[in-house]
Amino acid sequence: MIDRTIFESLQSKIDEEAAVRDELHEIVQTLARNGRSTTAILSRAHSTPSDQLKPVLDEATKEILAQKEQVTRLKALADKHPFYKYNGVWTRELQNLVSSIELCAYLGGLEEYKSNSAASFLTIEEVGKFLDIPVNLKEQDAFHLTIEEYLLALISMVEELSRLAVNSVTLGDYARPVQIGSFIKDLFAGFQLLNLKNDILRKRSDGIKYSVKKVEDVVYDLSLRNLIPKGSDNA
Amino acid sequence: MAESSTQILSIFETFRNELDEHHDRRERLIKISRDITALSKKMYVSPIFPSIFKVVHMKSLIKIRKLNAPLPENITKETQSRFTQIQSLFNTALPDITGPNKWRYQRQLSGAIQEYIEALSFHHYLTTQTLITLSEVRAKLPAEILVTEEDYLLGLFDLTGEMMRFAVTALSAGSVASEEKKMGLSKEQNGIVVDLREMRSLFEGLSVSRRHNLIKDLGKKMEVMQGSVEKVERAAYGILVRGSERPAGWMPDLAGGGDEGY
Fold first, then answer.
1. Does A139 contact B99 at a Cβ distance shorter than 8 Å?
2. What is the ipTM of this complex?
3. Do the Cβ atoms of A135 and A150 come closer than 8 Å?
4. Which of B173, B182, B186, B171 is nearest to B231 (CA)?
5. Number of domains comprising chain B
6. Which of A76, A173, A213, B51 is the Cys-Cys partner for A168 at CB 3.0 to 4.6 Å?
7. C-alpha pair distances (Å), B19 with each of A22, A83, B112, B137, B210
8. Residues of chain A with C-beta less than 8 angstroms from the C-beta of B212
9. Are residues B106 and B184 in the same domain?
10. Which residues of chain A make contact with B195, given a CB cutoff of 8 A?
11. A12 with A118, same domain?
């Protein structure tokens, strides 16, 4: 004899879970929509000389703050459930946001959240402080930014910076490629410390060397022609 | 810049240690999961020679032809020792699945859990002719082990495969032609066909949202389950129509697809 109530209770569990996913998804969609605006604004950096970046960064910061509000909503909802059960629903958008935050910070925005204003990036703790979320929780089952998410965001930022190095030259800025080159080489060295397995982090971080090479080629072209201004880093 | 290089390196050293811990935990759990899977599969079948896999399966089952009755002593003893081994394997996983890690490594263990549920529910069905409930499954495992509704459901899907093999064997070994001259299966033989049909319709009645995790496994499982139910229905049909023409001790060939063999 097959007990039908077994399937009835399975169905209600399935429905419950689908409802949670829908609710989370709704927030993530808003987060994604704001994220696209953030990215669009930040991409103007590719065609804006660095001394005129301020308004771009201000506008980007505004969008990033709007995304932060969604993260706060997301956290409130996600905290009611096991973190890793639904983490997949938002991880992608959270990575994109962190990557925008890092890029904005590198370009000179979000100054008040950096440990010192000369720093080129925010540490995972600083990102957590800015978004008002915990990071790398190991004991507690609650919403947080994971190390993997942070690292994947840094990789996206590196890719964007290698593109910026090329475009800086077009804008007549010959110093920035050198700065970018030295920064992403530092990050590359960091990633080489990691023992990566065959996972997404491995696949994505394999791409960093191409970004590094792209920037090195630009720096090489510039130095060959004596175009690098005196006093630039590593010049 | 030199300062920031050292800062970056020290940050990444911390990350490296954390990631190493994560990979170690993950690998330990995958290993445990494999061992449990292997043991669960051994519960009723001997997987040593894949080609005779099913024959061995049937031969060990043929001893247990009656549903809803205790298993023969030697089989009880063997399965009991396997269950104990599996439970102790699950215990070794516990230190790695504390706190948030319970869900973090859910996928690493869920394969093993499904296999275990398959074995457990088959055992349960043979002895009681009912489905084991999720809370009964949970009670058979350490409380810290996460048994999701998905694992349970997917385990039940796999159970239909075991029931199919059992049913076809039981049907062919049954006493339709010899003892009861009138048409129809014995009550026992009919029971499992009815149960399978009922399960099929209940499985098919489930509606799963597109966004649900289950959705990726569901299609395939559904197909296999439907195939199993059909095999049993055809077997029942074949036994009734042609049963009397079979030589004593004949066994159907289960290795092939759904259509031949009956």
1. yes
2. 0.90
3. yes
4. B171
5. 2
6. A173
7. 31, 18, 24, 33, 33
8. 14, 17-18, 21
9. no
10. 1-2
11. yes
Q: Which residues pair with A135 in a beta bridge?
A: A145
Instruction: Say which DSSP state B201 is in.
Output: H
Residues B92 and B204 in one domain: no
The residue from B124, B145, B166 where one domain ends is B145
A9 and A55 belong to one structural domain: yes
Last residue of a domain, one of A92, A121, A144: A144
The DSSP code sequence of B102-168 is HHHTHHHHHHHHHHHHHHHHHHHHHHHSSPPPHHHHHHTS-TTS---HHHHHHHHHHHHHHHHHHHH
Q: What is the pLDDT along chain A (235 residues), one digit of tens a residue?
A: 899 999 999 999 999 999 999 999 999 999 999 999 999 999 999 999 999 999 999 999 999 999 999 999 999 999 999 999 999 999 999 999 999 999 999 999 888 887 776 778 999 999 999 999 999 999 999 999 999 999 999 999 999 999 999 999 999 999 999 999 999 999 999 999 999 988 899 999 999 999 999 999 999 999 999 898 877 654 4
Containing structural domain, residue A225? 148-234
